[in-house]
Amino acid sequence: MKRNLLLFLLLPLFFGCDLQKPESIVSFPKLISDGMVLQRDMPLKIWGKGIPNEKIRVSLAGAVGSSQVLPDSTWVVQLPPLPAGGPYDLVVNIQTIKDVYLGDVWLAGGQSNMEWPLKAGVIGAEAEFANPDFPTIRFFKVPNDYSAEEKTNVSGGQWKVANAENLPDFSAVAWFFAKQNHLEKGVPVGVIESNWGGTPAEGWTEAKVLAEIEGRSYTQEAKEVIENAEKWKADLAENEKRREMRDLLMGKPDSMMAGEVSSINYNDANWKSIQLPEANPLEHIAWVRKRFNLSSTEEVTLTLPDVHQMAFLYVNGIQIHYKDWGSPMPEVKIPGEILKQGQNVLTIRAVNAWNNKPEIGGKGMMFLTQNGKKINLEGTWTYSNDQIEPQLPEVQFHNWRPGFMFNAMIAPLTNYAIKGVIWYQGESNAGRAAEYRELFGAMITNWRARWGNGDYPFLFVQLANFMERKELQPESGWAFLREAQTQTLELPAAGMATIIDIGEAEDIHPRNKKDVGERLWLQAKKVAFGEEILASGPVFKEAKQVGNELVLSFSEVGEGLKLNSGVEVKGFIIEDAKGKFTTAKGVISGLDQVRLTIPNGFIPVGIRYAWSDNPEVNLVNELNLPTVPFRTGL
Prior knowledge:
The chain is 21% helix and 30% strand. By secondary structure, the protein is an alpha+beta fold. The strands form 8 sheets. Strands 1, 3, 4, 6, 7, 8, 9, 10, 23, 24 and 25 form an 11-stranded mixed beta sheet that branches. Helix 4 packs across helix 12 and helix 10 runs parallel beside helix 11. The radius of gyration is 29 Å and the shape is globular. The protein starts with a helix and ends with a strand.
């Protein structure tokens, strides 16, 4: 009896201890932080580090999960799917992550066209800046980083809400996509930006995956990366020290030194001469000077749009502008009070972290304007590459190596549930189109396997039209790369936005990012949300020869094919058995048909459409979406 009474008295004590809220301190990866957006309607992982064997209790929006810290100090708690909503507090033991929303989360990956921010001369950006406040759209920018081994956390970043302060720095493509997701689905949207200009797909793919693909341009290097991991760690550490020194040197110059070097009285007699814009011997931290004369000091504007990448500009020792990477160079009004009647001097300090070769000026685009008259700045300038500031240390672009960006910028994200990926890349692989289909598919499959959420939607942008326009260019590397991208649609839950109509001949970074983002969103509606909509431009279906004509039919036409300019279909070329190509005139001959006229004496064996770096095309569907480039035999 006494024994039972004692047990009865101890039971509340026992259960009370067991139900006590765990109080051990934990740490979180940078993604799990105030302001984050978590994926709705999907199991969620919350993870971090703590004291081994301590208990972990997580609560969010009424859902509760628990776990225990493993001997290696890591812990993971899984929560059940939760509907869209917020703001909530995410409570882990005695710590709280605030302002948490549930909605749709997308990873925005690729190279510079995905990285390109709204502030960098994007068409329509001013309209976005006029209405910037979307408190439930948040972006997380993963800093550029690379590693010879997988990391468990990104090197920096924080969730930033869409407002006047943050919006200009958001990826333009991702912004226009996310905004449509938010407006049409009525849910919060989170975007994780993990992108890096100029990077090839193999840098974003796990090295062990690449090493298993024999006979490719990256195979041997992928194997070497795996077999010599310790060597690479040491090499990267040394390279990182050089990068830090380079970035320190490249920063803002000493103001007294800059004022002296850019002053009108500075003696640059021992500097070399350069003819701008014809020559470009500039490197390291380049200082260039140009003297000019004025009859008055009023209303003087500098026009110098071509400056790559970063530059400080001075007139008579006074800084008049700083151009950052990715920002366009505006026309700069020079304050009259710093100018002099007679001789003046324009001085530029230019650096280029991309290839260590800054560039200044373009033909016909280097001048001052005063009272409607131009003062030409082309011709002889003086320059110094190393007399004013030391040469920059050599920094290797190891981030391009197989798996290095995956290790630092993708692997740390794979616990974070996402709706899918939007991707804009391929320019850096354009010379290796033959292996891109396999490589790109391997990357997508690799990512999906590492997330462990099945075949999540992977939506990508086909390369835009770019470079000189040529009517016949059957060996176009960009055309073959576009074909490889189209072939990737054979993977499940893949979608492609075609932008063969909105590129720019002289700029690899088209400023029309709105159409790109919104075309990706059309793909998302169909692929990710299962809507039965028209989301693509016309897609070639079949071709047959009828007399002296080729009759082509297309799917994805909606209410019918049409032209967005002219009266004849442009962009078709045909091939004969000897490999000779010629253009073919075409007309729309039905809802989904185009008829091409075969030139007399020409026996076609193949057809290509939009098959050049920068083709002229005009065949669209009811949504004005362009026909997807293709080639086919007969």
